[in-house]
Amino acid sequence: MVPRLMTAFSGPLLEIERRFLDAMPEIERWLRGQWQEHTPPFYGSVDLRNAGFKLAPVDMNLFPGGFNNLDATFLPLCVQAAMAAIDRICPDARRLLLIPEKHTRNLFYLQNVAQLAAILRLTGLDVRLGSWSPEIDRPTPVALPDGSSLLLEPLLRSRSRLGLEGFDPCAILLNNDLSAGIPPILQNLDGQFVLPPLHAGWALRRKSNHFAAYDEVAGDFARLVGIDPWRINPYFSVCSSVNFHERQGEDCLAANVDAVLGLIREKYQQYGIEETPYVVVKADAGTYGMGVMTVKDAAQVTGLNRRQRNKMSVIKEGLAVSQVIIQEGVHSYERVGSGSDEGVAEPVVYMIDRFVVGGFYRVHSGRGKDENLNAPGMHFEPLAFETSCSLPDHCQNPDAAPNRFYVYGVVARLAQLAASLELERTAPIEEQVACA
Amino acid sequence: MVPRLMTAFSGPLLEIERRFLDAMPEIERWLRGQWQEHTPPFYGSVDLRNAGFKLAPVDMNLFPGGFNNLDATFLPLCVQAAMAAIDRICPDARRLLLIPEKHTRNLFYLQNVAQLAAILRLTGLDVRLGSWSPEIDRPTPVALPDGSSLLLEPLLRSRSRLGLEGFDPCAILLNNDLSAGIPPILQNLDGQFVLPPLHAGWALRRKSNHFAAYDEVAGDFARLVGIDPWRINPYFSVCSSVNFHERQGEDCLAANVDAVLGLIREKYQQYGIEETPYVVVKADAGTYGMGVMTVKDAAQVTGLNRRQRNKMSVIKEGLAVSQVIIQEGVHSYERVGSGSDEGVAEPVVYMIDRFVVGGFYRVHSGRGKDENLNAPGMHFEPLAFETSCSLPDHCQNPDAAPNRFYVYGVVARLAQLAASLELERTAPIEEQVACA
């Protein structure tokens, strides 16, 4: 099942889809060229929003969860892409240490970890799971709903290497986004590949760096296919020195909200779009939909009540928010079901290395098209993409499922490419490690 | 459906499968290392024989037909592998010229060409089909059973480049095995990639070079996993200067048949196998199961009647046979169906670059387990592998379908690796071309 697009503005998106299909040889060749210049992150997932008149990434996750939500038929594709990634990064690797998030009681998340470990094992790597959580003070099996179990083991640090008891890995794959900072146990490693690099974690990463890189990528790409870059790129702006508790930075926030709303309004006018513009205010460092607010008027950010200010103040791991990004809101026009069962569907596309390996929709019933679907505690139903993103079909309509998924895969790869640029530019100056 | 193995000797194969499964991390790492040293052919298909006590490649095709016989669910895997191959070989390529076999009235074959073109187009290449057949003197559409059509166009040669009217490709992919020799139109090209290289065609290629390289690969691999290399490697021997018409070389043939049968007999004794040894005598240069003979006694090759000698004398394109390979026959113990519907099933594994992308069984009813299933005019039913070759499952029996297919995929990759060595060693000394 593929969500239907509920919009009066499907004209422009059909046009985007048609352009992408027509330009497919140029697009793929351009991407091949880009990957010669830039190294893709090991993996990533991209949240897209499809507004009919606009299709854009709104978030790029470098520590993707949710691999368990991909359709099982695409497991071979994941394995093959992971093989290609390992060939490129560390062909000599034999053992890989996977470090998941600490919240070991979230079974949804642990099923993702199990799936990820399965994919990596199928490439022929010896994979074990390590944790620096104090609870994991000995090898700890965790039962999963399907009857299998995961073994979490305490990390063991020597002078320059990280491993487990009896396990000295060549590569360390983080599925932990380092929101709580880079723990000393991960610092100053020598001769081990850390994937993605430490500065990809939220301890150092900033959404605004990503979207600045995406601006460039989207601009170049839009020139290539002959579209207005705005069709695939949300406006954004940044305020630093914000302190919601102390109502510090509210003026900056209001001014920037106003400015971004103004820019959107112009575009809506230009294209005759009669929707209400909105922006999403969110922590520049952070994830999990915490510290996120939908705003349609600058007055909203100056008149926050205590509860709202508290909500905006902290993100995951209790970290205080001090810099925020004000991002153009992109309406979600994809819906599934009908009547009271109707829900908004937000596509999430998964990549390993340069390859799109699958995706699913986050389907949430009873939420508006301009609300954040990835809020904390938010329940969503995953709806796996039913076909691959690599099978566009010129014989079908531009909005037929294989073609829509192809277009999603292209935009997701633009975000993956932006992440490459972002990581290059934010990399600390240090020596590259070699595979020991 | 997976063919059942009808053999009293499943013990040793179960053991091979178990060893492969246990050694999977070592196997995959070893293969990664090999691919760092050796460049895989663009594509290939390998005919395997599964005798229960032995699992071996008996033929390696560098111009594979039959892509249309792969299960549709593995199309994304083909596309992704082809993307990786193009990334590696000619990332800058925009246009690819595909040159199929000349027999344009074979609809089975043309469906393969259509599938291959589809895979390549899905990587974003602009693909067109060229032919040097005199029949194709203008762009000629050929209707396919599914209602689609292929456009075959006459080749156009400039001083140093090959293309079509209005189409100057960077890469030329041969699906024509050059049995009739290397036509002048393909010679002395400059700045265009020819895949696979011209010396991979049967005009120059010899099976004996392939199996000599396979000897080495199988030996190294057998040491790695701790098995007798004979378990995965058929004995072979070569006679040059054979002329069946003039009964020249019969003594050499008889002596070599005798020698190979003797070696097989020793192994059968060693392992307590009570089957009758046989060898397959076939043209050292050639394909399509022409010039192939099953022999159980040296006397058979000295007492050939005129009809048999005629049959052995010519291969595809009417070429005379002058060198033959005497290869250990590997019994086909895989069978499908029952009663009069029962048939022998021979697995064929498909690869693109380093990756196994699928496979199928050639199922032929009413043929013996020691007969050649790929004879001219031979009708077979393809039976697509139902799971990928990359999903071995340690929780299932070693002979469960995913595990058997994994083992097939490993042996097929050994043959692909042997083809890399073979092509390196037989390459003419010339400059590498660069992508123009």
Automatic annotation (TrEMBL), chains A, B:
Signal peptide: none annotated. Keywords: Ligase. Gene3D superfamilies: Glutamate-cysteine ligase, N-terminal domain (3.40.50.11280). GO terms for molecular function: glutamate-cysteine ligase activity. Pfam families: GshA. It is an enzyme of class 6 (ligase). Its EC number is 6.3.2.2. NCBIfam families: gshA_ferroox. This is Glutamate--cysteine ligase. It comes from Candidatus Accumulibacter contiguus.
